[in-house]
Amino acid sequence: MLNWACLRLLLVLVFSANAVFSGTIVKTLPGFDGELPFTLETGYVYIYIYIYMLYTSVGEIEFFYYFVESENNPAADPLLLYLNGGPGCSGLNGFFYQIGPLKFSVDNYAGGLPTLLYEPHAWSKTVNIIFLDSPVGAGFSYANTTDAWNTTDTKSSAQVTTFLRNWLRDHPDFQTNPVYIGSDSYAGINNPIIALDIIEGNTAGLQPIVNLKGLSLGCAHTDTIVETNAKIPFAHNLALISDEMYESAKESCNGTYANVNATNTECVESLDAISECIELISPQNILDANCALLSPEAKEVKHRRYLRGNAGNFLLQPHRVGDFYCHNFPYLLSGIWGNYKIVQEALGIRQGMIGEFHRCNVSLAYTVDTNTVVPLHKILTNTGLQVLVYSGDHDMVMPHNGIEEWIDSLDLTVDTDWRPWYIKGQVAGYTRRYTNSGYRLTYATIKGAGHSPQEYKRKECYTMFDRWIHYYPI
């Protein structure tokens, strides 16, 4: 059986690529009034996949990207490769909803082409950002063979590493910039795999050298069992279940709530009782309304078609159901916007390569082959990288206590113990910093935020990131 190091090295060797640069500068976008107040480049990076050991071609992938130059000093500012979760969410998810320079105008939307607004707390204020449609099948990225469409956690990570080297080859002005790998949610699995691929490739002499300096992980999927086990104590800590229910489950399930044996009836019954209490709570943010009719996945296509064709039927603001604000509603607007022909023409999308654009494509030919990357994080503690891990404290998808547990398992030295961090004198969250020789990991919570925290607290998340990326205490 291959160990992690051998598997990663094999994948680095498997994915050989020659890139054809096809980037264009986008001056205007439908829905935005006037020229864009930042530099946006979009394009494809062509990756040819060839298995040396079998002397056979697997196929070709065209990865689509959105590159936003820093609004500060692009020649010197860090380069952040930002990956969205899912797996299968487009780079436009991060661009519009999380850290990018534009957002949708939601108020009073009643159909048609959505309006775009400038976002003052974009991370592009301080770094250059590559938003990537990855894995293949996300957004506008596509492949030319069935084998190339099929991917896994480890394969897609190796492909992203190849993309980055090819992108840097086509953008020599950025080859000396500090490079950071950023991830959201599920892409937390890919983040450390990519980092180790980069380090091993640099050591092997692959060109261009990637000047990797650190990682940024938001509400990161890292270990399936740890995250599953964390949800019960999370619910208890936030008073969603009673002390008696928690103690019953803890005792009967022996503190382990993942992969429960069906013969343990007492444990199963305890978990069923807990499920009845939390099943109608929004896991993204337990304080949000649970707007099931505006789910971001299976029903998204139907709703965005309705919104485009029935603008006159809206008597209420569509992002509200009764008295409740629906956090997921703005997700629908990216699907509406991204399927307009004039939008795709402005972005430089090749027609006929994909079907309908989805914010998150849930029908990927994707196989999960990695359930934990904690061992990889342990390896990275000896690399001298700077790491930021952050979490919303009301997120029940990736509970903060589970993230804190796997960080504790790295056996790092606490450099700065638990303390509040502030914005203009107000507590924005809590933080702790760890070290191991030159390696430094900063952990931060964002008070009141859900999954993903950048969607709930843009100002706070930008301030946190801006301080960290420039080596200031949060």
Model description:
This protein starts with a helix and ends in a 5-residue tail after the last helix. Helix 4 packs across helix 5, helix 7 packs antiparallel against helix 8 and helix 9 packs across helix 10. Strands 1, 2, 3, 4, 7, 8, 10, 11, 15, 16, 17 and 18 form a 12-stranded mixed beta sheet that branches. It has a two-stranded antiparallel sheet with strand order 5-6. It has a two-stranded parallel sheet with strand order 9-14. Helix content is 32%, strand content 22%. It has 2 domains: 320 residues, Rossmann fold (3-Layer(aba) Sandwich), CATH 3.40.50; 54 residues, no CATH class. About 8% of the residues have low confidence. It is an alpha/beta fold.
- The gyration radius over C-alpha positions equals 22 Å
CATH homology superfamily name of the largest domain = Alpha/Beta hydrolase fold, catalytic domain
CATH class of the largest domain: Alpha Beta
Beta content: 15-25%
Give the beta-strand count.
18
Total domain units: 2
Silhouette: globular
Count of helix runs: 15
Contiguous uncertain segments of 5+ residues: 9-20, 293-316
> What is the CA–CA distance across the termini?
43 Å
Would you tell me the overall average pLDDT? 89
Give the gist of this structure.
The protein has 15 helices and 18 strands.
Topology:
Layout: H1 4-14, E1 24-26, E2 40-51, E3 56-68, E4 79-83, H2 91-97, E5 102-104, E6 116-118, E7 128-132, E8 142-143, H3 146-149, E9 151-152, H4 153-170, E10 179-184, H5 190-203, E11 212-218, H6 224-237, H7 243-252, H8 265-278, H9 300-309, E12 320-321, E13 324-325, H10 329-338, H11 341-347, E14 366-367, H12 374-380, E15 386-392, H13 400-408, E16 413-423, E17 426-436, E18 439-446, H14 453-456, H15 458-469
Parallel strand pairs: 4-7, 4-10, 9-14, 10-11, 11-15, 15-18
Antiparallel strand pairs: 1-2, 2-3, 3-7, 3-8, 5-6, 12-13, 16-17, 17-18
